[in-house]
Each structure stands twice: as structure tokens, then as C-alpha cells.
Amino acid sequence: MLFDARAGKSRGMTTMPRTRGALTPDRSLADLTWLRVGGPAEWLFQPADPEDLCAFLAALDPATPVFAMGVGSNLIVRDGGIRGVVIRLGRGFNAIRVEGGRVIAGAAALDAHVARRAAEAGIDLTFLRTIPGSIGGAVRMNAGCYGAYVADHLVQARAVTRAGKVVTLGPGDLHFGYRQSRLPEDWVLIEATFEAGTDRPEALAAKMTEQVARRDATQPTRERSAGSTFRNPAGFSSTGRADDVHDLKAWKVIDAAGMRGARLGGAQMSAKHPNFLINTGGASAADLEGLGEEVRKRVFQNSGIALEWEIMRVGEPAPDGGAR
């Protein structure tokens, strides 16, 4: 069934499937991203559970674009917002359980929470502890830290297709690469299952404490950022593991290009870690993306290296461009 979205007809779209979850027109996304920038979603859908999500996608006009959004930890939403439907998973998708040496986590579960729950059961997924964001995003981008990657530990993932069907995917189906997978952009991950080595819970807890201390000492964790801005300029193996044999690090080539601490409007490349793009206050999405592009330009001019964005940029620019 469809209903008339009278409470804010949005960019010409007037009918949407009925839902049990929240469906909101013209919903600002700025407060849902770690960088606190961005325009509105034409529609923001927060499904109640997997069945609600499946029914919604099955009934949705196939021509309507769909974008699955996590907790906005690795995302710039442009100032003009996102057309179509943005899907954001919540409480119906954040359960974490341990079964027979495996950890099964909902896509909305935070990476840090999964690492801690696994450690309590003596399962070593400690690499997830300092990765910002949720499990859905971690699987989609093959997140990694301290030499371990999602590709090393994923047993299977469950996703809802654009047509509203639930599918189960193995690592081979996802075709992991360095900081990426080939999951279709309009499919929504809902759950992931992991396996890992074991250790004493107290040893794993101590390992995570050391990792957090190391991160806080080297990264601007108290600033408004979205984690690493650019991928390290290295290759990757067929398993998705980075090949750092040449020790090429994005922060090093940014620093060598003189862009540590560089600013554009309210955006800045961190003086503490130059591969972190931060909102110092009042930045627009155009400021942040514009500064990132200037960094890419300067690095290429200085070293011939073409940096690739790690932060996802989505949506449309503001009509006036938005940058200051």
C-alpha cells in the first residue's frame, strides 16, 4: 500500500510504501554524520526490523534511488542533500551474539561494541576496537587496522537487495579489495558473522586498551573528523590485504606536500595527523571536499601520487556551490 506524504512533499515525490519504522521527508542529515555537515535526505527511512525493510524495498518504485547509511563516520553528505531514500538502520539491527566460537553482529552494531563483546567471549576481533562506525560499513569497505581486515575474519554476511530479497553472501561474493568490496550500492547489509582466534578475555581487554591509547596519542580523536581521509597509496592482494612493502602512507605524502594544517573555510587537515580532515566549526561540506581535492592536487604536483578518497562523498552540491 502507498500513502500520501502530505507532511512535506519532497522534490515532487508524493507517494511512498507504508512502513512500521520511521519515514521522514526532507530530513537533514548533518546531525547524523560525524563531520556534522550536509543537506537533507529526500526521504529518511529507519526500518523497524528486517521484515519492514524487505517489504519497503519490494514496494518502492524501482526508479527511486536508495542509499544505505551507517552512523556517518566515514561520510561527507554534500550540501544539496541526497535524492531518493536514505536508509539508516537502528535498534532492530544492532544485536550481537556469540554462537559456537562465532560472533554474529547486526549491521548497526558499532565496531567497538562488537570487539568488546567478542573479547568477553575470548574471541580476538580486537582490530575492530578503534575503527569508527558500524559493522555494515566495516564489511562494505573491508575495514582494517593493525594488520587485520574484515576479509580475514568474515564467514558470511546477510543483505537485502534493492528488490527486497534477503541474500547470504560469502567472502568470495563480496570480492574484497583494499578498503572496498563489490557489494551493490543499493543493497543493505543487515548482519555479519565472524570467526577469529582465541585468547583469554583479560589479555584481549589489555590489547584493546593499548590500541586505544596508541590511537589517541597519534590521531585527533577529540576533533570532529571522519577518520582517515585518503587511502594509503599501496596495492592490495586478492584477499583485500594492503601491500605496504614500500611503506607509502597517505599522511607522509600529504605532509611532504606541505598540507599539514591546511585550511579552507571551516575545514582543516589536522596538524596532529595530516590525513585527518576536520571540521573546526562552521565548515560546509563544500569546504571539506574542496580542501580534500586541494590536498590531492598538491600531493600529485609534489610526488606524482594520485591519492584516492577513503571518505565517501555522496549527494549533490548546494546550488551556490557552498564553499567559502
Structure, described:
By secondary structure, the chain is an alpha+beta fold. It is 24% helix and 27% strand. It has 3 domains: 87 residues, 2-Layer Sandwich (Uridine Diphospho-n-acetylenolpyruvylglucosamine Reductase, domain 2), CATH 3.30.43; 111 residues, Uridine Diphospho-n-acetylenolpyruvylglucosamine Reductase, domain 3, CATH 3.30.465; 91 residues, UDP-N-acetylenolpyruvoylglucosamine reductase, C-terminal domain (Uridine Diphospho-n-acetylenolpyruvylglucosamine Reductase, domain 1, Alpha-Beta Complex), CATH 3.90.78.10. It contains 8 helices and 21 strands. It has a 5-stranded antiparallel sheet. Strand 19 and strand 20 form a beta hairpin.
Question: What labels would you give this structure?
Answer:
324 residues; alpha+beta; Uridine Diphospho-n-acetylenolpyruvylglucosamine Reductase, domain 2; Uridine Diphospho-n-acetylenolpyruvylglucosamine Reductase, domain 3; Uridine Diphospho-n-acetylenolpyruvylglucosamine Reductase, domain 1; 3 domains; five-stranded antiparallel β-sheet; four-stranded mixed β-sheet; 8 helices; 24% helix; disordered N terminus
Short description:
The chain has helices at residues 50-59, 111-120, 135-140, 150-153, 171-174, 201-218, 250-256, 285-303, and strands at 2-4, 15-17, 22-28, 40-46, 66-69, 75-77, 82-88, 96-99, 102-106, 144-145, 148-149, 154-160, 166-169, 188-195, 225-228, 235-236, 242-243, 263-264, 267-269, 276-279, 312-314. It has 324 residues and is of the alpha+beta class.
